[in-house]
Every structure is written in structure tokens, then in C-alpha cells.
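TL;DR need C-alpha cells for one chain.
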Amino acid sequence: MPELRTDDGPRKLRAVWLGPKGATLPFEWTYVQWSVTLLMIPLGVALVALLIAVGGLLTIGHAPWFTFWFGLIYGAPAAIYLAVRLMRGVTFDEPLRYKTATFREEFGRTREPAEGVTAWVMPFPKLADLPASAQDLLSGRTLPGEETR
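>> reply
TL;DR here they are.
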């Protein structure tokens, strides 16, 4: 996980843009929220228009004339709604880059294991290191005075 730096005083400043003087908005959005929302609008329009065009190609053989307008009417509000829902969890303690890095680590394919594979190596003693009676037992010979079964 990315490192959190919560003791950084200047970064705690919440830079908000309320709109032009005399015509401020009834909500406070940070510059990051504005940029994410404004970038999501064209993506939402394009996605809805693409879905309508593909649906038209599959059903009537060509894209309908209202493809772009459906994208504009339904895609832009849907994109704004999704952007606002996504940005609701972005705070100073967990900024957008923290959220994206966490998302990439959780769902990315290049995850590294937390611990490496341990190759256990047991140092077994050699037969020459064993006493003579143990060597006899391991080699299959019987000691004097023992019976074989």
C-alpha cells in the first residue's frame, strides 16, 4: 500500500473552487473533483453513444440517428453521478493517487507475494559421522548378538 503522510500541514489545505464571484455553487468541490468529473463527462457520452450504436447495428443494421443525443442526454448525467460517487471517498488522508495505487495493487496482474518461497535445506549427517553401531543398523547388518527376523 502507498504510504500515508498525514502530518504534512500545507497539504491539508483544501483548495476548493466555488465558482465565479456572485454566482457561487451550493457545494464545495476540490480541483481534483472538478477535473475527474469533467473528464468523465466525455467518456460517459461516448460510452452510451457506443452502446446505442452497437445496439442499432445489431438490430436494424445501422446506427440510429439519435445515437449522439442519447449519449449526451443519458451519458453525461450518468458520468457525473459516477464521478461524484467515486470522489466521495477521496479525502486528504486517502487522496486520489492513493486510491488508484491501491486499486492497481488489488486488481493488477503484477502482484508480488508478501513473502518469498522458503527453500528448506536440512543438513543431514553423513554415514561416516555416525557411530559404528548406527552405521551397522543403517546398512542392514546386524550387530553381534542380535537375531534377524
